[in-house]
Amino acid sequence: MKRALLQPSLSALLGLAIAASASADKIYLSDGSIINDAQILTEGVKTVSYIPDGKKKKSDAKEVASELVLSVEYTQMPEDIAAAQVDADDEAFAAAVAGMEVYLQYVSGKGDRKFPWAPAFARCRLVELYKLGGELPSMVTSADALVAEYPESRYVPLAMVEKIDALLGMGDVEQARGAIDALKAMVSSAGLPKRWEFEADVRKILTNPTLKGEGLEKELQSIVRAAAAFPTVSNFAAVARAESLVARGELAEAEKALRKVVGDQGALDRTLAAAYTALGESLFRRAEAAESRDEAAAAFAEAQLAFMRVVVNYRFEYAYVAKSAFYAGRCFQEIGGEGSAAKSRKLFTYVQRRFKESRWANEARAFNRRN
């Protein structure tokens, strides 16, 4: 799995190294290969241009399709951005946002001659920082600002996808559908790479109220197959399909798909959080239906591990943390033994305090009384 400073989904796509060394940049591609010792020149919506190792002139520049770029590791960047990245690493998100805003104000209207890619990067990084802080409305406005200010940047379709997911997280399905249509229109009018069409299509499927159960799963499986060249999309669709399978009780098939996703080193954090949550739920259901105590104990233990991966490793993926923390607490209750009650109590209390407005807080409150 591609990791950056803070591990969330956009970090995996942006690349956040801040070392001020003289070494060159790295371009990580979706097929697992790496372009080493590159000097990034531009990051366009269709191509990323760079000067390859051993070359110095811009006339020697090469290009790689933007849709194949998973992340870029920048070894040099503007001081304001570097300082903001340090704040973000310390989880001082408000300070990081302020730092990015300072930089964007400085380059407004004139760009950055030394780091021409940096203004769009900073604007997209703001989307991520607001996500880390759980500020979904600010994610939406920041994504809109990026599209307006840097329409030719490779971060534009990425930010539009994040906007769609933020709107869905806010429960604003109608606005999300409008954003999906806007992304599809951009794909058509600007001739964007196929990846972004798939990103829009999978979300259009998920927001279609008439698709449920096997019908939904069939549509999602078509995306899994068609988008095989773009694992960030195919994995996302595969997890959504598996979630539907779990809901229908098709646990074996769901677990097979989910184990494949969590074994993919290129999977994004959001997708992994969703996958481990669904895997944990499937194992929990399997444990509840187990015929023997040993079989149940083994399934509860594996489920607990899956849920705790989300709580610990993907703690900024808020859409999944509350549910995973609750079920991890339930697993400890079912497993029993020394210290289990204290661990479940700690998890339930965390859910009640951190996600007090969620349904999981109410569930945690009820089960906490059993300790």
Explain this structure.
The chain has helices spanning 9-14, 79-89, 93-107, 118-132, 136-149, 155-169, 173-190, 194-206, 213-226, 231-247, 251-262, 269-288, 293-313, 318-335, 340-354, 359-368, and strands at 25-29, 34-43, 47-51, 62-65, 69-73. The protein is of the alpha+beta class. Strands 4-3-2-1-5 form a 5-stranded antiparallel sheet. It is globular and about 70 Å long. 48% of the residues are buried. Residues 1-22 have low confidence and may be disordered.
Keywords summarizing the entry:
single chain; 371 residues; alpha+beta; five-stranded antiparallel beta sheet; 16 helices; 5 strands; 8% strand; globular; disordered N terminus
How would you summarize this macromolecular structure in one to three sentences?
With 371 residues, this protein is an alpha+beta fold.
Main sheet: which strands, in order across?
4-3-2-1-5
Q: Characterize the main sheet.
A: 5 strands, antiparallel
- SSE pattern: HEEEEEHHHHHHHHHHHHHHH
Coarse morphology: globular
**How many separate helices?**
16
Secondary structure layout:
Layout: H1 9-14, E1 25-29, E2 34-43, E3 47-51, E4 62-65, E5 69-73, H2 79-89, H3 93-107, H4 118-132, H5 136-149, H6 155-169, H7 173-190, H8 194-206, H9 213-226, H10 231-247, H11 251-262, H12 269-288, H13 293-313, H14 318-335, H15 340-354, H16 359-368
Antiparallel strand pairs: 1-2, 1-5, 2-3, 3-4
Helix pairs in contact: 2-3, 3-4, 4-5, 4-6, 5-6, 6-7, 6-8, 7-8, 8-9, 8-10, 9-10, 10-11, 10-12, 11-12, 12-13, 12-14, 13-14, 14-15, 14-16, 15-16
